[in-house]
Amino acid sequence: PNKSAKSPPRYCGGPPSNRKSQLGLALFLNLLSRSFGNSVHRSWRLSDYCSTEVGASHTGRSHCQSRLDIQVDLFERLPVPFGLVRFGVAPDHPEVKNVINTFTQTALHERCNFFGNVGVGKDVSVAELRQAYHAVVLSYGAEGNRRLGIPGEDLRGVYSAKDFVGWYNGLPGNKELRPDLSSETAVVLGQGNVALDVARILLSPLDILKKTDITQPSLEALAESQVQRVLIVGRRGPLQVACTIKELREMVNLPGTMPDMVTTDFEGVASVLKDLSRPRKRLTELLLKAAQGAASRQAGASRQWGFHFLRSPLEILPADDLTSTAGIRLAVNVLEGSHEGARAVPTGEVEELKCGMVISSIGYRSLCIDPAVPFDHHKAIIPNTVGRVQTGAGLYCSGWVKRGPTGVIATTMNDSFDTARSLLQDIEAGVIDVYSVKPGSRAVLSSLDSRGVKWVSFSDWEKIDKEEVRRGQRVGRPREKILDVAEMLRVAHS
Amino acid sequence: MGSVCKCSCTVTANPHAHLSSMASFVRFCSPILGSFLGAPLSSGYRVPQCVWHKGFGRCSVRSSSSQDTSSAGEKVVLHIVNQDGMKTTTQVTEGESLLDVVVNKNLDISGFGACEGTLACSTCHLIFDENIYNKLGPIMDEEMDMLDLAYGQTKTSRLGCQINIQKWMDGMTVHVPQEIKDRRSE
Questions:
Q1: Which DSSP symbol is given to A254?
Q2: What residue stretches are annotated with the 2Fe-2S ferredoxin-type domain (chain B) (predicted)?
Q3: Which of A14-18, B90-94, B106-110, B127-131 has the lowest mean pLDDT?
Q4: Do B42 and A48 touch (CB under 8 A)?
Q5: CATH number for the domain formed by residue range(s) A147-362
C-alpha cells in the first residue's frame, strides 16, 4: 500500500488550545468513493482545515472540528483508475487527458488511497463500506447504455456507442467486439459529442490514428475498414443538435473527408440565427456553412460524413443471411415547437437507408450496483438532494450516477464539488458523527483478502502505466493499453 | 501555510465571507500547486512553461495578445479576486500567461487549468474589467469554442491560458468566476 508512515502534518497556525483538542480526538474520518472516475476524483481535495478559515465561516464555531484530517479511500472496479478519461475520451484528444496529471497528484496524497480491482456490490457491499467509513460517496458513473427498443437491434453490425468507444479505447469488456467494418456506409444514431467521436474515428486518416493511444487491434481493424460514408442521424433538427462546436469543427476540418448534407434540412435556420445564444449561434453557423459546402473541401477527399435530421429509427433491416445488417428503416419527423424544447413528431412517412453498421449513440445509463442503495430505474440515477442519498446519514453520490449521463469534465467536476460541499456541511453540522471510531480500509481489506480479491494499489497501477508506456514507445505511440484484466493484475503484482 | 510562495503576495481576507468559504477548506491538490501542504511534489512533474507544445497534442493554442517579447521580464502588479471574494495582490512577469501565474504563484483556485493550457477545457476562465477586456486583442475560434462551455460566462470573460501579461496591464484586477451553482437550487 502506498500509505505514508508519518502522521498527517499540521500546517496551519491557530490558538494552541485548538491544536490540543485536535490531537485528543481520534479524528480519522474516512471517506470513500466507489470509483475513481473524474467526478469523485475532483471532489477529493484533501487538507487540514485551517483554523483561520473556520473562523471565516459563519457556521464554523466548533473548535473541536477546526482541524480535521480527512482520509479518502477510492474503490474502483477495474485495476486501472481514471474511468472515462481513459476509456471515454477519444484517442485523438490527448490534451483532454492532461487532467490525469491532476488526478495523479491527488491520488499520491498521503491521505488518499486507491484500491483497484474491487467491485463494490460484488466484492464488498455498500453496507459493509458504510460500517467501515464515516461517509461513502457513490460516483460510479453510467456503464450501461440506453437501448433503442426496435427490431433488429441485436443483429450483427449493430453496436452501442458505449461498446464501440470502449473497443477502440481498450476497455477490457469490449476486447472481443470485432465490429464489422466491411460495408461502405455506417449510420450513427444520435448527434451528441460521442456520436461525432465515433464518426471521426471511423473516418480519420490512419496517419493520425497511429500516433495516438488507440489500441493496436482497433488500429489494425480500422486499417482494413471499408467504411467511406458516415451518416449521423438525429430525431430533431439542426437547432437541436447536442454536440458542441469543437467536435463539429474537427469533423469539418478532418483531412480526406467532406461534408455531405441536405440543405433543405436547414430551411428557416438562417433567419433565426440572430435570436440564438452565442454558443448555439456559432454552432449553427458552422453547421450551416458545412451543409452549404462553403467549408473548405479537402484535396482528395474520398470519405464523407453528414448530419441527417428529423429521422427516428424504426427497425434495423437484416441481410439475406438474416443475421447481419443491411439497412435501417427510419420514420420521418416534423418539429413541433422551437429551439431546445422542440419535439419530434412522426409524419407517417418512412425512409430506408442502406448500411452495414449501425452505432447507437443515444445515451449512457447508470446501473444499480447494490440493492441496498435506492435507485430510480426510470431516470437511472440514485435519488438524492444535492448529492445526499436519503437513507440515513453518510451516503452520497456524485457525477453521472447523481445527475444523469451528460456533461463535459468541467460539468462533472463542478458537480462533485457540490457533493463535497454537502458532505463538509454535514460534518460541520454534526450530521456525520466524526467522533465515532471507524475502522476504514483495515476492515474492508481484510474482508477482501478473505474473499481472495487481489486489490491493486496506486503504485501497482503505476507499474501498469509504465509497462503500457514502454510497449507504446516500441511502436512510436504514447502507450499500448493492456486489454486484459488478468494481464493488468499480473503486471501490477509483479 | 507551510508552502513556500516565492512572490510577494498579500492576501486580504474578506470579512464578509459566507458559507461558500467552506469550499476553501478543501484545497485542490494538484500539480498546479508547486508544493502541496509544504511537501514539494516529486520532481517528475514538469513546470508547464510551454504546455501547448507538449507531446503530439494539436498545437492549436495561440497567444491572443501580441507576440511582443521586447520587454519580457518586466514586473507587473496583478490583483486576483477568488470565488470567495478574497483578493490576492501579486507581482507577475510580462510575457507569462494567466495560467502560468496561477501555477507559479500557487494560487488556490479550484480545478484551474485542468487541460494545462491546450484549449481542451474552460477551467481557466477569468473575468476582466471592461476597459481591460476591450484591449485584450482578438479571440480565436478555438478559445471561444471552449469559453462558450464555461459556467458563469460574461461579456468580459476570457480563458486565462490565452492571455499573456503585458506592461499596460499593470494594476489590473481579474475575477475568478462563480463556477459554483447555487446549492439551494436543488
A1: -
A2: 74-180
A3: A14-18
A4: no
A5: 3.50.50.60
Q: What are phi and psi of A395, to 5 degrees?
A: -120, 130
Q: Which sequence spans correspond to the domains of chain B?
A: 75-175
Determine, for residues B118 and A410 on separate chains, whether the beta-carbon distance falls below 8 Å: no
With CA atoms as reference, report the closest residue to A67 among A20, A128, A107, A118. Answer: A20
> Buried b vs exposed e over A48-79: b needs ≥16 C-beta within 10 Å?
bbbbebbbbbeebeebebbbbbbbbbbbbbbb
Instruction: Indicate the DSSP class of residue B36.
Output: E
Nearest CA of chain B to the CA of A278: how many Å?
8
**Taking CB atoms and an 8 Å cutoff, what residues of chain A touch B17?**
56-57
As for the ipTM of the complex, it is: 0.78
Give the contacts of A250 (CB within 8 A, at least 6 positions apart).
A196, A200
pLDDT, greater one: B161 or A58:
B161
Residues of A within 8 A of B186 (CB-CB) are 385-386
CA torsion, points B110, B113, B114, B117, in degrees to nearest 10? 180
How does pLDDT run across A189-230, given as a tens digit for each residue? 999 999 999 999 999 999 999 999 999 999 999 999 999 999
Is the domain spanning A19-47+66-143+366-456 CATH 3.40.710.10? The answer is: no
Q: Pick the more confident residue, B128 or B23.
A: B128
To the question of domain B75-175 being in CATH 3.10.20.30, the answer is yes
* Domain chopping of chain A, boundaries: 19-47+66-143+366-456, 147-362
Amino acid in position B59? C
The pTM assigned to this predicted structure is 0.80
